């Protein structure tokens, strides 16, 4: 991988501008849905709130870019991480209903954790286990999502 020297200011200004552009796009799209009220939120409420928070974050990053001066070395594109993340997203979308929530989150969590050069197999499995438990607690226990806990591919172990 080759490295390029880049100023911190340029990097932060570009990142902040990207955050704000994405936030404006999602905020604009969210206005096409009913917002509801704080106690009875509509489908556009959370995307709009997240868009506002992302604009604030982008503004903060831009402000930090104006305050910082210095140079940093930027490495090459992390192709392994990009590829493993895309594979995990594809697996989640394709195999989620068949594998079920807990197995697909475990599998995809392990794959994405291995995308980092700082994680080994043991830490990737620990991260995947923690993500599986948290996903089960939030989405099955808390929200009662219709995705099966253990999918039909596991036969007698299948559980809704």
Automatic annotation (TrEMBL):
Residues 14-148 form the DUF1468 domain. The keyword Lyase does not apply. Pfam families: TctB. Keywords: Membrane, Transmembrane, Transmembrane helix. The chain crosses the membrane at residues 12-33, 45-66, 86-115. InterPro entries: DUF1468. This is Tripartite tricarboxylate transporter TctB family protein. It comes from Plantimonas leprariae. The lineage of its organism: Bacteria, Pseudomonadati, Pseudomonadota, Alphaproteobacteria, Hyphomicrobiales.
């Amino acid at each position: 991988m080759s490295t390029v020297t880049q100023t911190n200011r340029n990097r932060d200004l570009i990142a902040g501008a990207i955050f704000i552009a994405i936030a404006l796009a999602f905020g604009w799209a969210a206005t096409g849905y009913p917002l509801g009220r704080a106690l009875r939120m509509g489908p556009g409420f959370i995307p709009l709130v997240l868009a506002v928070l992302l604009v604030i974050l982008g503004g903060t990053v831009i402000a930090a870019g104006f305050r910082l001066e210095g140079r940093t070395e930027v490495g090459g594109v992390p192709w392994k991480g990009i590829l493993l993340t895309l594979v995990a997203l594809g697996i989640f979308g394709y195999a989620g209903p068949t594998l079920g929530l807990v197995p697909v989150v475990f599998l995809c969590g392990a794959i994405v954790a291995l995308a980092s050069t700082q994680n080994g197999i043991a830490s990737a499995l620990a991260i995947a286990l923690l993500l599986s438990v948290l996903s089960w607690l939030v989405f099955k226990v808390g929200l009662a999502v219709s995705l099966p806990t253990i999918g039909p591919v596991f036969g007698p172990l299948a559980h809704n």
